[in-house]
Amino acid sequence: METDSSFTFVLFGGTGDLSMRKILPALFEAHRAGGMLADSGKIVAVARHAADRGEYIQWVNEHVKPHVSKNGVDEAAWSSFLERIEFVKIDLGNPEDFALLRDAVKDLPGIRVFYLATGPSLFVPICRALASVGLNENARIVLEKPLGYDLKSSNAINDAVGEIFAEEQIYRIDHYLGKEPVQNLLALRFGNALFEPLWRREWVESIQITIAEELGVEARGDFYDNTGALRDMVQNHLLQLLSIVAMEPPHSMDSDSVRDEKLRVLRALKPIDPLNIGKVAVRGQYHAGGIRGTAVPAYATEPGVKPNSTTETFVALKVEIENWRWAGVPFFLRTGKRLADRVAEIVVNFRAVPHSALGVSALRAGANRLVIRLQPNETIRLYCLAKQPGEGMNLASVHLDLAFDQFFREGQMEAYQRLLLDVINGRLALFVRRDEQEAAWRWVEPILNEWKASNKPPKPYAAGTWGPAAASAMLAQHGTCWLEEEN
Ligand code: BG6
């Protein structure tokens, strides 16, 4: 069935890395699937590194095609996809060029989506130039992260964009919110009466949220060195995951009900006490090491990174939420590059039984735990204790598994595909509202400030490990450890 939501999708940064790896492949997948994009929908790429449409299409063939459909490209779908693409050469430093864009889109149908896959320094000039040629009407604007560098710069961008576009027209992307398993977290929590009564301080001892990467900074050394893991991953992805794990049940799934509840969590985060920061925050930087048998260089020798850089590539935090549901429950957040594995997961450690008639082993860890694996291999695993077969009452840790790819063999959608379809169809729930973003910056900023003021270098860790030992010591203070340390 064909959707009737016609659109003109204008892609700024049309020859950039994000367009190449994520945005154009996601649009292609939606096109290939059929029925998701209106036939009349057009993509208008804006760039200055191509002379004309022919050259741009050649670039798309060379650079985008390798990133689509791992199982081979459907050639017929690919050529009909290319027919959707128009091209406008614009020098973004030259606002007069926007008249060319206005002329290119004026007769195209449907809602206009302006996707700013550019650096944040261009957000405001592009919005102003769009307004100067009247293109802010009947339009949605998509802003990629990072949106600013701190609260002040993010407010400056939001204020300026807010003068041109209403909040309902602004789609701030956090691609983690588009991931299928993150959606599933909502289904798990609010679709099952089983978990919700246990989802609180009386039954939960601690929660871990990890986003670990094997990759280093790739070709983004320059950007990353001015950013660091706290801004790149914690301020957005990790705090968004935390807010979904910890939020109260929303009254409905409409965009503001969900975002209101997430906001309440962000506002209830216990402020970090600068005097105590060493106990609740660990920052690290990778040195040379090996990932799966391959030697990898130190962060400080990566292209674009300053040799004496003190930027963190690893962060672990202990976070508390000051409300009735979560008071006193530590949430341990962790992210890092060049770690031992690529994994994103949420570990809910429930409290042990208060008294064991079955002997001490019934009190031990390895049971009473829910592990929600977001990637790779989306799985929900519930650890319990069971009796080992045979004589006597010997207990062993066992698990119940729900592996999503086995249960639902098809229909999985990449995060960008879902989010782009949401923009085209005007669904805001999976986009970050301004007040959420501000609350996240407000909480993160004292950590950034304290790290800067103390001028201490990050703790070293060898690439291919799980980060600095201090991250384990932080959990040990609470009588617990990271999940992989138990296995
Ligand atoms: C991005 C960060 O937002 O998320 C990158 O800027 C990071 O540094 C990436 O590698 C991780 O996303 P994913 O989907 O690969 O887990």
Automatic annotation (TrEMBL):
Substrate binds at H175, K179, E213, D232, K337. Residues 186-482 form the Glucose-6-phosphate dehydrogenase C-terminal domain. Signal peptide: none annotated. Pathway: Carbohydrate degradation; pentose phosphate pathway; D-ribulose 5-phosphate from D-glucose 6-phosphate (oxidative stage): step 1/3. The active site is at H237. InterPro entries: G6P_DH (IPR001282), G6P_DH_AS (IPR019796), G6P_DH_C (IPR022675), G6P_DH_NAD-bd (IPR022674), NAD(P)-bd_dom_sf (IPR036291). Residues 10-184 form the Glucose-6-phosphate dehydrogenase NAD-binding domain. NADP(+) binds at R48, D91, L92, K145. Catalyzes the oxidation of glucose 6-phosphate to 6-phosphogluconolactone. This is Glucose-6-phosphate 1-dehydrogenase.
